[in-house]
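Morning, I've got a small favour to ask if you have a moment. I owe you a coffee for this, so here goes:

…
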Amino acid sequence: MANLQGAMPRRLISIALFLLLLVAARAGASATSMAIDPLIHLSADRVSFSFDRYTIDARGHVVVRTSNGLVIHGQTFSMDLKLDRYLVAGHVTLQAGGHTQHGAAVSAYLQYDRLYVVPITGEPDRWTFIDNDLTKPYKGLIMPGDVFYFADFGPKRPFLTARSAVIRPLHYVRFEHVTLPFLGASLPLPTYYLNFSADPNLVQNSLTGATYDLTYNFAGNEHSISALHLRYDSINKGYLSFEQHLSGRNGYAVVSLNPATRPQKYWNAIFDYQPNQRLSIRTFTQLFTDQTWLSSPRSAAQWTVATLTYALPKSFVQLTGFQTNYRLVNNPTESQNHPTYLQFTSTTFPHQIGKLPLFESMNWGFGFNHDSYGAYGDGGLQKFGGYNYTTIWNHTLGFTLYTPSFRLTHHVPASKMYYFNASYTHSRQYFSVPHFTDVQTTSASISRQFSTSLGAYLNYQVQNVGDIYRVGGYSSYTPIINGVSYPSFAAFRGIATFRTLALGINGSPDPAFNWTILARVHRDFPIPEVGLFTFTPYNVLGNVTPPGQLGEPPYDITADLRFRVARHLNLEIQRSYFFHYGTINWSPTFFVQFTP
């Protein structure tokens, strides 16, 4: 590796590594305290999996081995992964504790640790075994009505076939020696992992957005997932990425490399640890490298944020720290380019004001920013009044008022009911540089659900953003760009106003198809004159970044369609129209994204 120079954020990185080890240790501890469900090892001539029904079907020389010592031989195996049970039929042989039992079929109910068996006897009978004890058959006990029901795949082709599988009931299944239908061909894979647990930590994501993402989970268990991603976006085009998930009893970790096959790589790491119901620690670190494959990087930069949150009876407090290193490789003259930010905030939970239909929440905080290098190497964060500020302190105070949903109509069907919502937010932040910022946002909306498949809302929002100096600050001037003057900007003194009227309509006539239309009118100051402000940028997905920027077009309308193109694949298409804003009518690109 190249010589990494400059002061690394050792404390924040140490916290991240500590949390990773803690999550891994907790994951191991959780594994030892798992529920009684055994691990199931299944092998057969053909193992099939249906994604639509979430069922596994195995045929020919079926062998089931469980981690609690049970071995079952048969000809057919069926398991509904949503249920905690499986069925084996056809010349069945059970072995456990040195004892053997023959039968026509056996159904294992794992939650109750019971085996329901159709034995081979002179007369039809059904036996029940408890705790895998084959020496004590309970004859004639009442059994569930569907105990020997085989799941029906139907006419659809299975999602994949395999030779064996490892199943942790209610958690995951890992198929081995897999054949996966792909683009009309059969794609051989060594393994395929599928998670269906209720653990939300295993679905946390550290990858940035992409137009298309084909995920291949090649390894995992109840506490981890290892995945390769085949992705596409408008900037990087096609590329591969890697993501690793870890989940423990009190936290999780997600690390990724994205894109892995392009020179400019982002190494992301998210760690979250919650030792109790009140305390939460979360870190996010991103390392940027410009390198050919895994050779010595030509340039590298790192950004880390750590957040500690603690809940109080009626509020919560939060401590957030940022550390950035813009130059980690070469160029020793810029080794000090690592600004630091620390902020403490306290926020109250929503509280009803007396008996009024009005709720409030308040927040306050203080913090500081430090940068002795400066954005351009000229030292400091801001130059003002003949002084160079390398450290800027700040303190904030704010509140939010909002109403619950008001019914504007009464004693009418739900399809004719109108609802009203309103909110007001005001925050002010003072700095050791003699100025403050003030943000006020007022919003009111009326909505109606015309039917189960059609809804609409009308929203009006006003936002005032001020950057106000006690002395000096913004001076009046008329910009001249390419020989064109813009006199309206001469009235700007650091206070901007954004007014937006929005009409949204959404429809979902079918679970596999939905659409939305959003029409907006903007009346902003400074006036968004063509050529004065840069047009709102688009991200790698092709959609507009969030509104609230100088230069919003006066009118825009956006249509969004989302529909199913395959059994497990949805396509979303979006585009905007800007009504002759300068030379722009349609947005430069379509927003296109494939989602599961």
